Structure formats: structure tokens, C-alpha cells
Here is the input.
Amino acid sequence: MNKLYVVGIGPGDRENMTDRAFDAMEEAEVLCGYDSYIDLVTPIFPLKERIATGMTREVERCREALATAAAGRTVAVVCSGDAGVYGMAGLLYELSAGYPPVEIEVVPGISAAMAGAAVLGAPLMHDFAVVSLSDLLTPWDTIAIRLEHAAAADFVLCLYNPSSRKRRDHLARACDIVLRHRTPATICGWVRNIGRDGQESDVLTLGELRDFEADMFTTVFIGSSATRAIDGRMVTPRGYGEAGQ
Amino acid sequence: MNKLYVVGIGPGDRENMTDRAFDAMEEAEVLCGYDSYIDLVTPIFPLKERIATGMTREVERCREALATAAAGRTVAVVCSGDAGVYGMAGLLYELSAGYPPVEIEVVPGISAAMAGAAVLGAPLMHDFAVVSLSDLLTPWDTIAIRLEHAAAADFVLCLYNPSSRKRRDHLARACDIVLRHRTPATICGWVRNIGRDGQESDVLTLGELRDFEADMFTTVFIGSSATRAIDGRMVTPRGYGEAGQ
Here is the structure.
């Protein structure tokens, strides 16, 4: 059957990619994806045919990938991080009914939540919630309700898309919601350009995070009430009784 | 400085491991971890010195890893999935103060949430919460409150440790909490032995999941109100207007 891989490449370098992701792209005749992600893998597969499309053209991109696979060519749709976390896997399944049978295989990758957590220390050691602050596809009210509940239940929060040119204040608004349930001293962290040139990160308080200017390449972590700063790292204890004694 | 890697190996096979994880273990003189995880990497590194300890001996295991690294040997603590999601990274940071300086580097891996989601389709395409149902280190009341809030906020839920010999009914109790906010027809899924021999999975309803007997090698996914079954796959739409038209 015609084959379409949806590949999570992780942060983008070969080191943080699985062999399975590499092999899927190598097997593919055509690589398809958002142009910035295609740029990340072009040095690895310089001779591979590419279909690169701009941001917010997800539906068009997925239709083109499905049409190419349905025509008998093996396609790999390239996603940054994990293919199934705010990636293209879901949309490809949704659209696939309109095309002749294509076998879709999702190849997982290191998502920004895990890659960013590893840079900061160990913030996700206990129950956590992942929320995108982008209101392009989700009403802000829904986002706000999720933040409210996650904060009330003392989840560690990992925030994707904390900012963009059109919505600079989303992170501050998110912090204000969490601040109804946690103190300004709550330990937080952010990582920018995870695993790429110019990677930066910081561990800071929720009060400080409120005034931090994130960009669209930043992933933000808000600690639970148990999260601590240990030697400059953001660490959420899992609750081992003996630890630290 | 003395070096200690905390390595997420993903499901356990070489294919789903990053090169960075492989390289860290190759560089290490000693591999340390829960014996089942050490067994997974022994075929890859048959000649490497190993310190394998039983379940629930996390503190002892981390102390031994830190002492070995502090004595000047490079150590890799091996974790299944991601090193920072219910793994050993946090505990190692917590305990590290008691040892001569050791540089801890967390190497992320494919967690069961991402690997399991890829098997089922694309359940984590939108905001999700990860909750462990193990009450060994967390009171059940805390777990119940988190489930309640996550369900109320319409998060997709990914459940780790849904069952064990001592707590067979935790998954049913979790489903009952979610059923206060979602219909029994809500699309769910489970994956057992992800990426390993004997991998099994199913897409089913929340009503059916309530009566499902999970074991400790199972990861469970409960859909949001938007999650759908598409051609036997569990898919949470992200909300692209055109999709499916």
C-alpha cells in the first residue's frame, strides 16, 4: 500500500533524532513540511525532493502530501518535535478519507516538552499538563479554562506557542491565571531554540516570568507547588521519602 | 568534571533511541538502572559494567550512581521512555548535593505518551495532561483532584501506571471521575508493551475502558470531547477549519 510517514524529528539535529525517524525520511521519495522544518533536514538529505510550504498552510500541505502518496510515491511529512503533539499527524488522518488508501505511520520524536525539560533540569517529573497559548485554532476562553484547572490541580504546566507577533501578552495573561492559585515565588523556566544554535534558557520565578518576553521559539515551564530550584536547575520532586536526607 | 548522564532510551529498541542516548551510554563506563531497563540495553552494550537494582529502590540506585560518578567514573542512568517524565532525573538532582561535584546531563527520550500516541493514531494533537495513577508516591486524593480538573477542562488524558497487583481498580476509579464530565462514548485507547515484542493496542470507548484490565506495562489515553475514531485510529482534531471537508 502507498505509504505516508509522519515523522517527529525532535529539535532538528541528527543527534536528537531517532534512527526510525532517519530511516523513514531516507526511505521516502518526497519530504513534505513547513519550510523551516524542511530546512532543518535538508543538510541531512540534500538530494531529496521537497515540498515546503509556509506557516498556517497546514491543510494545503497535508492534502499535497496525501495526494503525492496516493499517486504511489512514499512521502515523509516532517514535523518538529513529536509528530503527534501539535503536529501534522491528526490532520493527515482527518483528511485521509478523501484519498485512495494510504497507510499512515506516525514516527514519534522528542517533543519540545521533553527536550526543554532536559535543558532546565527535571521539571516534568510529576503530573503535568501541556497547553498551547496559540489562539489561532482555539478560542482564548478555552485556553484560559484549561490553565485555570491545571493551576488549581497543581499540575506542572508546559506552555507551547507562548507568544507571537500578534499576541504578545498571552504569556502574561497565562501567568495571571496561574497566579490565582500559586505564589509569585513558584519556580518556572523557559528554553529558546531548544537543541539548536543559539539555545538559551533560564530558571526564574512566576513573578518574573509574567514580565518575560517570550517569542514563538520559546517553550515555557511553570512549576507545581512542589517544584524547586536546585543548583540553578528546575526540579519537581516525585515524592521519594528519603530524597535529600 | 565527573559526568553522569540520565538517559531516556524510549521504548527500548535501538530504532526508537536517539543517537545522543546511544552515545551517552557508549561513553559511560557504568550503566545503572532498574533491572528491567538494564535488560533492554544489555544486547546493545553487552560488555558494559552494569549496576541493576529492583523496583522501588530508586533512592538506593541514584545514590549508587552518584557515588560511582563522584569516584571519577562516567555513569549513565538508564530510564525507559524519557528520563524526565516519572524517570530518575529529578531524584538525581535532589540527591546530588550530598556528593562531590558531578555534572548531570539529562538526555531526553521518546516517552510512553508520545510512543503510545503514535501507535493509536494522533490522540495528543491538542492540549493534554499526563497523570500517573500510582499512589505509591502520591496520595490517591491528589490524583483524583487532578483527574477531576483535567476532565472538567476537556484535556486529553494520558495515564501512566494505570494498574498494578496492589491497585487493580485504579483505572476504573479514574474512568468514573472522568465520566462525570464526559459521555461513555468518549473515544479512548490503550497500548501495552509499546515498541516491544507483544505490542498490543486498542481504540475503545470510555465506557468500555472502565471495564478494561490494564497492567503495569499499559499506557492509557482518554480523549477530549473532540476526539474521534477515524478508521480505527484515535484522533484529536486540532481545529483546522477546512479539515474533513
Chain A is about 30% helix and 25% strand. Residues 58-70 of chain A form the longest helix (13 residues). The longest strand of chain A covers residues 2-8.
